[in-house]
Design brief:
Blueprint (H helix, E strand, L loop, with lengths): L4 H9 L1 E2 L6 E2 L1 E10 L16 E8 L6 E2 L6 H5 L10 H18 L7 E4 L7 H6 L4 E4 L3 H9 L4 E2 L5 H9 L4 E7 L8 H11 E12 L1 H6 L12 E2 L2 H9 L3 E9 L5 E8 L10 H11 L11 H21 L4 E4 L4 H9 L9 E2 L17 E2 L2 H6 L3 E4 L5 H7 L9 E4 L5 E2 L1
Parallel strand pairs: 6-7, 6-9, 7-8, 9-10, 14-15, 14-17, 15-16, 17-18
Antiparallel strand pairs: 1-2, 3-4, 4-5, 5-11, 10-13, 12-13, 18-19
Length: 421
């Protein structure tokens, strides 16, 4: 093969897939530059500058894993974390329902052992504790783990991987149920992480993983769920390959509404005999293949869709500014950093945002420095429009803020396309 100047340059700069090791030459979408999305500066930090990293997403043409480079280490991202799961009522209900279903389906009781990887503030394991099922949380962010311990959830402040799994297993702490909600995307060393999950399982134990579904990300233009804390984005096609590479068998999958459309994958050791394969797997994989996710061409049109979403949101905000309308935000989720930076939105178009998390109040959104207030600020200032930045929680938020109708206020949802409710 003769290398052209273009392919020579690619050969020099090529990245490698974090799962299968193939070269990454195909762009999924390039969202420009953005700071780390969970780095909320305080007033004293505003003049110190911030580090921006590329949001250039690739897709592997061998295993179809969609992924970002690892620009910052997990230790620096998650050592102290700004995200506390318990500030969403709907997410707490989701967690409670999960615990009830798993206890019933797999016969969990006081003799069982449940381990959650990336257990955050104990938002989920607290419901197993209430049901007298022994648990252990593993959470790298000390500030978040402290809250879990205060709730009565035993928590190790460590990063999870094969070494920790082997230590726990050799200490007699193998698990009947291992779970990880919205953590698989946040792991740069996928192979070590998944191998650790297998090591931690008892011979007939069950693993459940929840993560945003790549198919829904594409269908609904959910580009703002792409940020540096999320290293990878998963289809079921790729997830099955990843699990099988580490001796795990996916035996069931559920499609969830959370986070704009997620999957809950059930897996066990390959040699386990008590978990028959359910027809749900073939159904979801068929949907993915019909959408083109089994070929590299199926990933090529996403960038164009994203641009259309950007133009629609920016066009609405510019028109509101020309008309002298006031616009505020609701929420300060990590995804807002990607949305605002890619669309070029700052304080001139969204004056402020509010959030229920005390950790974020009094701080500023990364990069744009849009101030974050307590939710009462909306009632005090009576904006004409409220942009719901955590759009996946729009029904919960609209219910909380029904009072903006009193002054003619309206809600705006930015994804999949700017829409006034």
């Amino acid at each position: 093969m003769i290398l052209t100047a273009e392919t020579q340059q690619k050969a020099v700069t090529v990245n490698l897939c974090r799962f299968c090791g193939a070269g990454l030459l195909d762009t999924f979408v390039d969202l420009g530059m953005s700071p780390l999305c969970e780095s909320y500066p305080g007033s004293a930090d505003l003049n110190r500058g911030e580090v921006y990293f590329p949001l250039h997403v690739y897709v592997c043409r061998t295993c179809f894993l969609v992924q970002l480079e690892e620009y910052e280490s997990p230790q620096n991202i998650f050592g102290e974390y700004a995200y506390f799961s318990s500030y969403s009522d709907s997410w707490l209900k989701h967690a409670d329902n999960y615990c009830a279903r798993m206890k019933s389906r797999f016969g969990l009781d006081g003799e069982s052992f449940v381990v959650e990887v990336a257990s955050n503030d104990g938002y989920l394991l607290q419901y197993f504790v209430q049901r007298n099922v022994p648990v252990l949380g593993i959470e790298p962010a000390a500030n978040v783990a402290k809250v879990a311990v205060e709730k009565g959830v035993p928590t190790l402040v460590k990063f999870f991987g094969t070494q920790l799994a082997e230590e726990l297993a050799s200490d007699g702490r193998s698990a009947d149920l291992v779970l990880g909600n919205n953590v698989l995307a946040q792991v740069p060393d996928l192979n070590d992480f998944v191998e650790g999950l297998k090591v931690l399982l008892k011979p007939e134990g069950v693993l459940t993983l929840e993560f945003p579904h790549l198919l829904k990300l594409i269908e609904h233009n959910e580009f703002d769920t792409i940020y540096h804390e999320h290293f990878s984005y998963f289809s079921l096609l790729t997830t099955v390959r990843l699990m099988e590479a580490h001796g795990l068998r996916v035996f069931d999958v559920e499609e969830l509404a959370s986070h704009g459309g997620s999957l809950r994958v059930f897996a066990c050791r390959m040699e386990a005999e008590t978990h028959p394969v359910e027809p749900s797997i073939a159904r979801v994989i068929e949907d993915e293949e019909q959408a083109g996710l089994g070929t590299i061409e199926g990933y090529k049109s996403f960038a164009k869709q994203v641009k259309e979403t950007k133009l629609a949101l920016l066009g609405f905000l510019l028109e509101a500014a020309r008309e002298g309308k006031s616009v505020a935000g609701y929420g300060a989720p990590g995804k807002s950093a990607t949305l605002l930076h890619y669309c070029g939105i700052g304080k001139d178009l969204i004056e402020y945002t509010v959030d229920r998390s005390p950790y974020k109040q009094g701080r500023f959104l990364p990069g744009t420095h849009i101030p974050i207030y307590y939710p009462d600020r909306i009632h005090e200032t009576k904006p004409d429009y409220v942009v719901i930045l955590p759009w996946n929680l729009q029904h919960e938020i609209v219910q909380q803020l029904q009072y903006i109708r009193e002054w003619g206020g309206k809600f705006v949802v930015p994804i999949p396309k700017a829409t006034i409710l």
